[in-house]
Fold this protein.
Amino acid sequence: MAAEARARRLALRPGLALPALAFLLMLGAIIAAEPRVASYFGLTVLLGFAMPAIFAALAQMAVIAAGDIDLGIGPFLSLVNCIAATWLTDRPAAGLAALAGLVALYAAMGALIHARALPAIVVTLGASFVWLGLAILVLPTPGGAAPAWLAAVAAWRPPLLPLPLLVGLLAGAAAEWLLMRGAYGVVLRGIGGNPRAVARGGWSLLRARMSLYAAAGLAGVLGGLALTGLDTSGDATVGGQYTLVSIAAVIVGGGEFTGGVVSPAGAVLGAFIMLLTGSLLSFLDVSTDWQLSAQGGILILVLAARALRRRGRA
Amino acid sequence: MMRWAERRPWVWSFLAAGLVWALTSASVGGQGAFASLAVALEFATFAVIVGLGQMLVITAGPGNIDLSIPGVMTLAAYLATGLAKGTDGGLAAGLAAGLAVGLAAGLFNLLLIQGLAIPPMVGTLAAGFIFQSMAIAYSRHSHAKPAPALVGFVNAHLLGLPLVTLVFVGVSALVAQMLRRTVFGRSLLAIGQNRRAARLAGLAVGATVGLVYVLAGLCSALAGILLAANSGGAALNMGSDYLLSSIAVVVLGGTAIAGGQAVPAGLWGAAALLDLIVTMLNVLHVGAGLRYVVTGLIIIAVLALARGRAP
């Protein structure tokens, strides 16, 4: 019974049916063009690079839940990628400490934004330069090598479900459980929706924002590791595209920029959709030059449709 | 002194720029001090041009920001050089096309923000990526050099100072006067301070904010065209540093990030400060990585401190 109620609540969540339908339609279109995709191996290859996008989207979602936006998540993935391809391979202890330090820096960024009431958009944009600079300092020219265990994880072929789908399922379920089911999840979403009510309830807004930013940092680290496992090397500029992809994934997945309205399951679906835009373009023989346009265009379409629907209702 | 400076928020950026310049000059024994200042001012000019547009947008109040700057700069630069085909005869067509990109970009942003009620930060971000991918597609067919006359203009000097710098010091002064004396300028400041009150007072809120985004698009396009002429042609990554620069010079220059108060003069101090810091780090033989880190940290630090002073 509980499972059924949960399933119904998930299905009724505003906006989740639409991205699910869009994902299946896009996948169907690609399979129609290239039937070989519809196999365990085909899906593994097609959806492989969804893994970093999923974690980037969940990181962005944590920040958007706080009513903020993160313009630095792409370069942050690059930085994790560079650390993972150098220190984590040569000196695992130092590498792990550096990655833990990055999560702490994200929490500190949340604390700073809260304490000084700073516009997150400017702080994270400034931070994006810090991440980029650190990435160049760690790895001035593309190279390095992923730790063998990380490459092995990325190349693992689990039974039944292709790895990207399994990762999406697990990461989405974990984020759902933490943010949508847990008691503290309500508090976390509350600081984006109604911070005064949360504060009146006796919860620390500072701690809540720090938790969300730490979660974003952790998801960013996982995303960077996933990227490293797939690429098996490091590059200080490899993550740049993930800023737009992550924002678009959250919004396409049903998230809103105000009010702490987010959907972890939707963000995961959104990440898959954003990844498939690239594949769909190449199957339609459109140059990948236009991929940015397609992703930006989808973001605009979804937001415009939502605004028009709201206007119709009012 | 403190009270005098409080009413002139641009003072701090000039003081900081002067300090960095003096330190750098002293560390090399005063050699080439004025030449390095002229070079810093020349590069600062491009940040000031995009900064002028960003300043007007930010002044329109909370939530208003233009993140399409890199895409607009790049597309305008490619079309301007592509249509001019490296000749002075094509310069007029190139300039017109480049500025048309700016105008169209401003109108497109406006459509997203006011017509479709999309938050400015996402609308302009997505629009910027669309312009960027247009530039990527166009760049496959065009490798033109900038028109010689335009190159001559951006490299010309007057009294030891770059001519573009002098021209845009004049433009900044005009913008300052516009903010102080015209209906548009005063409406913009009022809207930035309290949008609701401005609307209730009967100000043309939609038209004023709309004009601001169009002006910002034109500023980005102009900066892209001039930068391409300055660096021998357009490049796909030419705009990437200018998104942060545009916001940085606004914040460091003393303009209120919450809107309602603009300080055009501060853009110059801030842009000079950022470029002189780069000069200093170059003199110290610091690599690109540390330069990015320092730039990012300065912006975050100044933002945090400035917020502490003003309520």
In short: Chain B touches chain A through 45 residues (CB under 8 Å). The radius of gyration of chain B is 19 Å.
